[in-house]
Structure formats: structure tokens, C-alpha cells
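User: Run a structure prediction on this.
Assistant: Running it now.
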Amino acid sequence: MEILQLKYFLSAAKTENFSKTASLFSVPPSDISQCIKRLENELDIKLFIRSANSISLSEHGKKFYEKIKRAINLIDDAVLEIKDLSLSGLIKIAILTNRNTIMNKIEKYKKLYPNTSFEISHKIFENTNDFDIIIADDEFSNSNFLKKLILTEDIMLAIKKDNPIARKEKILTEDLKKEPFVCMNEGTSLYNTTQKIGEKLNFKPNIAIYSDDPFYIRKCVEYGLGVAFAPAKSWEGLFSENVVLKNVCDFKRNTNAYIPKNRYTKKCINSFLEILINE
């Protein structure tokens, strides 16, 4: 029984397809099929129920899968821990909110520890376990992750100075109903925050422009194409002098770092978390 053989088994159990597993490991499908067959012969049990176009775990296979999954995770963690002799390596991070602040922290960390590399994503497509750290607001909920608070900040209304409501001491819901909004795309933290503020103030924001880039959100406000709810701390200094920020409902947003619970955390990840949380 070999480790690679067991990894083939785990992948086949997950994909329920020998060809997909073969593609993931860049080997012929026959290699996977023969390897699983040898494993079944060694154990003297059928791990999979085979049909014409698919496979699925047998009852014995399901029990074997749970044990082997934990064992392989422990082995992978042990290898990481032994190799982790210095503050170097790769940190896989998903930044779902507060990009500007987090990128500044990454820049600071790289100056201190240039041998550490970062693989950065702004979306999670399927598997959250692909990441060492996920940066998200309180809406991200996953029992497999620990949550550490990075930042709490006010959400303000960004308005071009020549907009009449910019001169008001207090902006009312009726004022907001008349304004076009600029916002990040649906599903993002800023989009969800905008909707929450609308619910709190009992109106539905009229989103006239969507963008997946915060830079263009700010530019649209500066050009007078709409107003936007903006995080006061992480966007501090990024608007021109032609934009004012108004507090309309005392709404706050938390930015958190989420770290997987049940696997070894490399030294470089822990040191980066120190900078994220404490500086």
C-alpha cells in the first residue's frame, strides 16, 4: 500500500470518475483503474461500485475513505511542518473584501520576508480548502475556519462635492432614493453592504453602474455618475478632493482573516497574520 495509491483512491472517491482522476494526476486512466484494483485485492474488499459511466464508493469504501482522508492530511501536515524551517514558502490567499488594505499589508510583509510568495485570488470558485487565508467580512461562515478580526470601519456615503445633497447636514432616505448608485458586482462584500444599508434605511438602492474594480467605483463618483457606499478606513485618501464622505446611518463593516482549523499552519502564514491583525 503506497501513499500515491491512496491519493489516487481519495481523488477517485471525490470525482467518482477514474478518467477525471487520471487527468488531475496527468496519468492514463488505466493506471488509476489498475492501481485501485490492486488496492482492492490487497484489502480483499470492493471499494467502489462500478457502473457503465460512473463509480461510487461502496459501504466499505466510505469507511475506508474517512480514515484514509484523515491519515493523508496528517502526512501532508507532517511534511509541511518538517520543511517549514524558515519564513519562506507560498501563501495562498483569497481577498474577498478590503483589497487595498490587504495589498498594503502584503507589500509590507514582502519587504520584511522577500522569500515568501503569495498566490492571490479575489474569488472562491469551489474549494475553500485551496486557501491558507481567506479575507472576508462577517458574512463568510464556515465551521472549518477560525476567524480573526483585522479591522472594523465605518461605511460612508461618497458624493461628488457639487451634488446638492453633499451640502446637507443630514441626508435623508428620501434623498438617497433619488440618487443613482455605483457599486461592486453582485455577490461582493460592498454589494451586500449596500443592500444591507438600503434595508436598514428602508429603500432599495438604484444601482446604475456596476464594476468589479474598486478603482472605477471611485472614479465614477468623482465624475458625478453616481454616489457609493464606501469603507472609510480602507479607501482613506483614495478619493480626490472633489468627493466628500457622509455618515448616513452609522453602519460598520468587519474585515476578518479566516484560517483553516484542522491543518498545520506554516510559520510564514502565522507571521503574516501578525502583520494583518496587529499592525
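The first strand starts at residue 48 and ends at 50.
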